[in-house]
Specification:
With 194 residues, this protein is α/β, with parallel strands linked by helices. Helices cover 38% and strands 16% of the residues. The protein has eight helices and six strands. It has a six-stranded parallel sheet with strand order 2-1-3-4-6-5, with helices on both faces. Helix 1 packs parallel to helix 2 and helix 1 crosses helix 8. It is globular and about 50 Å long. The mean pLDDT is 88.
Length: 194
């Protein structure tokens, strides 16, 4: 990567988010991904090549990513490993186990939560289409103020409006003494389930 990103305003595509992150994510940082509908973009822009550097789930439950990122950071601390943990999390997934961010704040863990705020459970909508059951109710997520929730749990939190802001806030998060939540408004997309 060139290390620079063309400024693009929100809502961003997942490709724009991961492309921007690829310019600033430290190579040694662990990556936890529970933005399931954007896994293809993550694999392209933030490939993982080291052992114990990528954490995801093949299928199953929603809501493991936030506490998973906290667990990776706590495990790193116990092992004497100094690295950031980057967690790309969907806005729906983020709500399932949000109390885990309090633990991150209490222990001043070096976690950067990048919350993809697309306003829906995209992965569940994609599964509904795959199962030929479109228009399942309850899959839209209007009105969430994730930044305020994170601040309420004691974290540094910001909402960014473009790729330049994402890069700047990500760099600031790497320097912060504790965890940060960065909310990025993104465009919904159908997941690659094929």
């Amino acid at each position: 990567t060139s290390g620079t990103v063309e400024p693009t305003t929100a809502p961003l595509t997942p490709t724009q988010v991961y492309s921007a992150l690829s310019t600033v994510k430290p190579p040694e940082a662990a990556l936890v991904n529970e933005s399931t509908s954007t896994m293809a973009e993550q694999a392209r822009w933030l490939p993982t090549v080291g052992t114990n550097s990528f954490f995801a789930t093949g299928s199953g439950g929603i809501g493991w990513g936030v506490p998973g990122a906290v667990g990776v950071a706590l495990g790193d601390r116990a092992a004497g490993r100094k690295r950031a943990v980057v967690a790309t999390i969907g806005d729906g997934s983020f709500q399932y186990s949000i109390q885990a961010i309090w633990t991150a704040a209490q222990h001043k863990l070096p976690v950067v939560f990048v919350v993809m705020r697309n306003g829906e459970y995209s992965i569940l909508k994609s599964f509904a289409l795959l199962e030929k059951t479109p228009n399942v109710p309850g899959l839209d997520l209007p009105g969430l103020d994730i930044e305020s929730l994170a601040i309420g749990f004691g974290l540094r939190a910001v909402t960014v409006g473009d790729t330049e802001g994402l890069v700047n806030e990500f760099n600031a998060a790497l320097e912060a003494d504790g965890p940060t939540v960065i909310v990025v408004h993104t465009k919904p997309q159908v997941a690659h389930l094929g």
